[in-house]
Amino acid sequence: MKQIAVISGKGGTGKTVVAGAFAALAKNKIMVDCDVDAADLHLLLHPVLKERHEFRSGQTAVIDNKLCEKCGKCISVCRSGAIGSDCSIERFFCEGCALCSYICPYGAIRMEENIAGEWFVSDTEYGPFVHAKLGIAEENSGKLVAQIRKAGKELAEKQALDYVIIDGPPGIGCPVIASLSGVDCALIVTEPTLSGLHDAKRVIEVAEHFNIGVKLAINKYDLNLTIAETIETFCGENNIPVAGRIPFDEAVVKALVEGKTIVEYAECAAANEVRKVWETIK
Ligand code: SF4
Ligand code: SF4
Is 84 in the pocket of ligand 1 (CB under 6 A)? Predict the structure, then answer.
């Protein structure tokens, strides 16, 4: 069983378009949407929910008003300004340090675990799909990514699947590292812009740090042939195989509007090139 992560370094490069196409092209696989801060692969895969799980992470202080004597000690120690003058806690400001619960002379403050989001196991016409939704203003998306990666891998092993295909988050932070750990190959989808190249370089460094084999695809390469060439030169100098040059194609937008993967929507130039990318990756 091979694990393949589709990442980008920056948002908006077309990573999910490629991952969605892989869902249609790959046989005997599970899809995992690790972009938990802004999940959108479900818009193409149309999942039918089978399992729903709470994601618990971090803690928040809660004051028991029956025990609180309004002494104000907790207000003075909270460095986050999370406790108002009326001794009530603004949960979005609370950092969960628990100091207030230690100093309250009346034992009126307890720490409660946060429900920071949900993760799901679904059926799709493309096979099983593990995805998640991080709660508003919640942190620890790296931990949630690790959770769904684990669930996806276990399901793949149980069902003897050949691939785990991961739609990764943008950037180079904790959720990206959690998406990359232990994968066999990372496909970087970039675009021919200076920021696309800059952010692709950063995520390549991250992947290489973890000894992960990297391939790169340039999406909408024909919108700026000069920068596309710069990207290819960079790849050549750094032994990074270019798995595909996907042309700009209005059919991609039309496919997204209809909630379809590009390879199912139309026989077009972009779909043909994405097919070639999958042949290279698999
Ligand atoms: S320290 Fe305890 S008793 Fe004092 S105001 Fe805070 S919660 Fe109430
Ligand atoms: S847990 Fe820490 S951040 Fe939260 S209210 Fe108490 S002292 Fe403030």
Answer: no
Say if residue 182 is in the same domain as residue 235.
yes
Total number of domains in the chain? 2
What digits encode the pLDDT tens for the residues 186-224? 999 999 999 999 999 999 999 999 999 999 999 999 999
| Cα–Cα distances in angstroms (integers) from residue 279 to residues 45, 126, 127, 254, in the given order | 21, 18, 19, 24
Same domain, residue pair 214 and 262: yes
247: containing domain? 2-46+125-281
Q: How far is the CA of 89 from the centre of ligand 2 (A)?
A: 8
Minimal-distance CA residue to ligand 2 atom 2: 97
Residue 78 is part of a domain; what is its CATH number? 3.30.70.20
Q: Which atom of ligand 2 is nearest to the CA of 111?
A: 1
pLDDT of residue 10: 87
Same domain, 246 and 151: yes
Q: Could you tell me if 136 and 273 lie in one domain?
A: yes
- Ligand 1 and 69: CB distance under 6 A: yes
